[in-house]
Specification:
Layout lengths: L8 E3 L38 H13 L2 E7 L5 E4 L3 H7 L8 H15 L1 E10 L9 E13 L3 E8 L4 E8 L4 E4 L3 H4 L5 H19 L6 E4 L7 H20 L12 E4 L8 H16 L4 H4 L4 H27 L2 H5 L2 E6 L8 H13 L5 H7 L21 H8 L22
Antiparallel strand pairs: 1-4, 2-3, 2-11, 4-5, 4-8, 5-6, 6-7, 9-10
Helix pairs in contact: 1-3, 2-3, 5-7
């Protein structure tokens, strides 16, 4: 009986034959690094502007509030569920990542790998035996291979400090595919073509700025025999030595020698192709250049969130819902939902008008508006009421319409003497 009510924590990094038993893991001494282990590094390269696109989208994805919620009979949000999985979303996904850092890592990994797996590492209950379990910690893994009912996932093990390749059932790990895969991850997609063009541009840039002089020396004799060729090579080496050892980089030549500098590199249309691919990529991803320099208006940001961020959030939430919630939980009204802060893009100058419309139309109470701007709630009970404060309450209107001196108390009946006589 005592064992049946014990809080069992099961780790996914166990041999397949031992997954039905509880495993106790002791401290393991591992190697140290100068960066966080398990961090996702972009394959596009640190110098490429592609990394800035990855980072911008990852941050915007992490700004959405993901919750484990309960719905009412009509499928509407009712309340949050205080579960361990909800705490993973809100506070700490694992020992290395907060909830927001976890979903930023998920977005970055989707763009880098195309397909990822959200794996419950520590669980209360055994996910390999029963659907009734709660998730203590979770991590992002790269999907390496697919089988009909399993996936091979490269997952970071925090106990040993390096990645492991393990087979996990598809009903345990939430497999998420990038909804923008044809645009970003396909071998000949616009994104990959742009990455290759940027790599070529970086190589050309490094070659042109490698410190070479790119000069041609015309000698006063023809170079047809091996002896003349050796003499020319000796002369070229002599000029190189003069330039290398001279304090100010000055060398001398013979009066009959002519030096020609190639100061104009061979032209190519790489830059033109890159600009065209950038415009095409922004168009296909529903993004605008104004989003990156902070000058995008409200309509542009709304289009960006609906066409780029929302499909990514739907893919993450739908995969976790169908994997981590059992049929019983779905019948009970449990769900995983994401919410976007509608006040994030409202300027301060427009906030007062926005708050007035929300309270006047009985959408938010004054205390909920105060919470948005970081102020403590008011102790006045009326501050939690959903009503239009520009209209007097019905009870107050009835009391105000009757003068105080004419209000009757108890069972007092009106008298004829109380009626004024007009002469």
């Amino acid at each position: 009986m005592a064992e049946s009510i014990m809080r069992r924590i099961v780790r996914v990094f166990r041999p397949e034959t031992e997954r039905s038993n509880t495993q106790t893991l002791g401290p393991v001494v591992t190697e140290s690094r100068s960066y966080r282990s398990g961090r996702t590094f972009s394959s596009a390269g640190e110098r490429s502007f592609i990394t800035s696109i990855y980072t911008r989208i990852g941050i915007d994805v992490s700004q959405n509030d993901i919750r484990h919620v309960r719905l009412d009979a009509n499928g509407r949000y009712k309340a949050n569920i205080d579960s361990q999985m909800h705490r993973c979303f809100q506070l700490s996904a694992n020992i290395d990542q907060t909830g927001r850092a976890f979903f930023e890592d998920a977005a970055l990994s989707l763009f880098d790998y195309g397909v990822i797996a959200i794996v419950p590492v520590d669980t209360v209950g055994d996910p390999f035996v029963s659907d009734g379990y709660d998730i203590e910690t979770m991590r992002i893994g790269q999907v390496l291979e697919f089988r009909p009912k399993h996936v091979l996932v490269r997952l970071y093990d925090e106990n040993v400090g390096y990645n492991k390749d393990i087979w996990i059932p598809k009903n345990v790990a939430a497999v998420v595919e990038n909804p923008l895969y044809p645009v970003v991850n396909a071998p000949n997609s616009t994104f990959q073509r742009l990455v290759r063009k940027l790599t070529l541009l970086d190589i050309t840039d490094d070659t042109n700025n490698s410190g070479k002089l790119d000069i041609i020396i015309q000698l006063p004799y023809t170079i047809r025999s091996d002896a003349r060729r050796d003499q020319a090579e000796k002369r070229r080496t002599d000029i190189e030595m003069q330039l290398r050892t001279a304090k100010y980089g000055i060398a001398y030549t013979d009066a009959t020698e002519k030096v020609t500098q190639l100061n104009r590199p061979a032209e190519n249309n790489l830059l033109t192709q890159i600009e065209g691919l950038k415009s095409e990529l922004f168009y296909q991803m529903g993004m605008a250049k104004e989003i990156f320099d902070g000058t995008a208006d409200e309509r542009t940001m709304l289009n960006y969130h609906n066409r780029t961020i929302k499909p990514l959030m739907d893919a993450l939430v739908d995969s976790m819902t169908r994997t981590f919630l059992s049929k019983t939980a779905l019948t009970q009204g449990q769900a995983i939902r994401f919410f976007r802060d509608p006040f994030a893009s409202v300027p301060v100058s427009d906030f007062a008008q926005f708050a007035d419309k929300m309270t006047r139309n009985e959408i938010l109470s004054p205390n909920e508006i105060r919470a948005v701007i970081g102020m403590a709630p008011s102790n006045d009970p009326k501050s939690d009421e959903l009503r239009n404060r520009n209209i007097t309450a019905p009870g107050a209107m009835a009391d105000a319409s009757v003068p105080a001196e004419t209000q009757l108390e108890g069972d007092e009946k009106p008298s004829v003497l109380d009626t004024p006589i007009v002469l």
